[in-house]
Amino acid sequence: MNSTQSRQDNLFLTKIERVMNNQLIQLLNSIVPLSEGLLEFLNAKLENRTYEPGELLLKEGQISSFIAFIEKGIVRSYYYKDGEKITSWFMKEGDVIISVASFFSQTPSNEVIEALEKVSVHAISYEDLQYAYMHFPEFNVCGRVLTEKYYVMSEERLYMLRKRTSKEKYHYLLDKHPDITQRARLGDIATFIGVNLETLSRIRSEKI
Amino acid sequence: MNSTQSRQDNLFLTKIERVMNNQLIQLLNSIVPLSEGLLEFLNAKLENRTYEPGELLLKEGQISSFIAFIEKGIVRSYYYKDGEKITSWFMKEGDVIISVASFFSQTPSNEVIEALEKVSVHAISYEDLQYAYMHFPEFNVCGRVLTEKYYVMSEERLYMLRKRTSKEKYHYLLDKHPDITQRARLGDIATFIGVNLETLSRIRSEKI
DNA sequence: CATCGATTTTGATGTAAGACAAATTTTCGA
DNA sequence: TCGAAAATTTGTCTTACATCAAAATCGATG
User: Fold this and answer.
1) Contact across the interface for A144 and B144, Cβ inside 8 Å
2) Are A41 and A11 members of one domain?
């Protein structure tokens, strides 16, 4: 398809075709083909939001009221332990973000979600999501598959933290998520790994 | 309802009523009311299995082919790290057990699941489960809700491991899962917490 | 481009927990 | 019920990492 052809296509896209341009919809559709009704519903309900670096997507004590797909940027979630901010994880473009505990059980969050860069997301509210689960049965498959995927990733982080030296943990991150080590602050990475930032700095300066 | 009444009831239970006596079915039904068709399907497919202490429910390299609900007993899952068995978690009566990564993605397991006591379970195969998801839409809700619940619990364990002293970790376990500290071996608990067993023994002998 | 604040690095010292070893207690099968 | 094996406790020495402190580097802003 040449560029003229593609430009022309855009002028004559049907409503459904335009919805399908959305990265999130493509992800969902790859899990299970979405009905036209569901596509229209999602198109109506998905909201674009942007955040500046340092801005909070979710504050402590708030109920996580929406689920967001990151189009661009990186965020971190953290919680307080003895007054210190402890990073629980980093999420970036292509990831679906929520505070797991708060969203699933609709209780006030212990976690804070913070934009580390300029961030843009597609968001859908808890209520709209529940409505979609109720009225478009195939959407439950998306929910289940995505939950399973993030659950598996969470377990992997759990293994990573257990019975490993600080060096091993940092190199795990470097291997599996090199971009995080580039885009996040040293101190934020350190609390994720569970070492203090001076130790992490020393690990990082070691050759091999 | 007095005991005579209840004994008489048992003699005249319908097929559906008998299925409903199953603890697992009750759990599922409390999440979403199960249709009669689904109840019959589950009744036909659920299989009872028992294991002796030390017996393996899932071996390394096997694909986790069934999901099991524990009726009685306690199991632990572990994986190998440099030849050492590292406990990933303990599960007991009332819990649903699988190797998360292996079952969801149907790939060979890194995890081993081992009975620590005499264990009895209700099991259903991966294929039968997928069939149920396909043909009984309400069953997807059960799958989603249970996955969410176990995901939240897994995240809690993650928080617990991060940025805590060995003492804090042990006391977390003592607080939240006192029966595990009673029923599991010291060495198995130690690898879960991420300390060596001598250290755990010393923590345990401390007052407070 | 000079300056202030944030972030990262480097240094010196203390401590919790690991490693290894051996003694003690518990468990369980013959 | 006895004895062997498994599990747990106790002892001592070593080490990786924490803590506190200060210097160096980076990055945004007037």
Assistant:
1) yes
2) yes
